[in-house]
Specification:
CATH superfamily: Peptidyl-tRNA hydrolase
Largest sheet: 7 strands, mixed
Distance between the termini: 32 Å
CATH topology: Rossmann fold
Order of helices and strands: EHEEEHEEHEHHH
Strand content: 15-25%
Shape: globular
CATH class: Alpha Beta
Helix content: 25-40%
Strand order of the largest sheet: 2-3-4-1-5-7-6
Number of domains: 1
């Protein structure tokens, strides 16, 4: 069983924010796979299933993402190396895409929550959202919508990322990394 988790915040006010890029990728995968919702209150999130793939959007707000992920992991007895977490990354330029096994949270509160409850050895799909001019503006920046210019690339970039994630079922991380990592999406 493979668990793909997209990080974000629930609620329409966060729907198109940089912090919710993980949710957008999960929405695309749910659509592509024709996945059916199998949520339970004890999962603290929206969970979808298609064959041996689970797709999770934690509804705990970003800072408590690990609570939802841990509940699903334990219920389905999923190994840490069968978990992929898709998240925004301010340390990468907008539309960059990176794949990473393990590592630190880099100040990302969703990853910090997951790391504290599950450990660090899961796959990360890092989607660059750029960073604000001043460090003190980070929280405000990630909770704002994408710019008009960024929005023009968003749908195609999300599709590209979803397609790369699908390949992780049959290819090694290194193969996907070498073929799909991006400095910037030009599509």
């Amino acid at each position: 069983m493979l668990l793909i988790v997209g990080l974000g915040n629930p609620g329409t006010q966060y729907e198109n924010t940089r912090h919710n890029i993980g949710f957008k990728v999960i929405d695309k995968l749910v659509s592509d796979f024709g996945a059916k919702e199998v949520s339970k209150a004890s999962f603290y999130g929206q969970l979808f299933k298609s064959n041996d793939i689970l797709l999770l959007k934690p509804m705990t707000y970003m800072n408590l993402s690990g609570k939802s992920l841990l509940a699903v992991k334990q219920f389905y007895k999923i190994e840490l190396d069968n978990i992929i977490v898709v998240h925004d990354d301010i340390d990468l330029p907008f539309s960059a895409l990176r794949f990473k096994q393990g590592g630190g949270h880099g100040g990302h509160n969703g990853l910090r929550s997951i790391d504290s409850l599950l450990g660090k050895e899961y796959m990360r799909v890092r989607m660059g959202v750029d960073k604000p001019e001043h460090k003190g503006q980070v929280a405000d920046y990630v909770l704002h919508d994408f710019s008009v210019e960024e929005s023009k690339k968003l749908s195609a970039w999300i599709t590209y990322t979803a397609n790369a994630i699908k390949l992780l079922q049959e290819k090694t991380v290194e193969e996907v990394k070498s073929k799909y990592s991006l400095k910037s999406f030009e599509g």
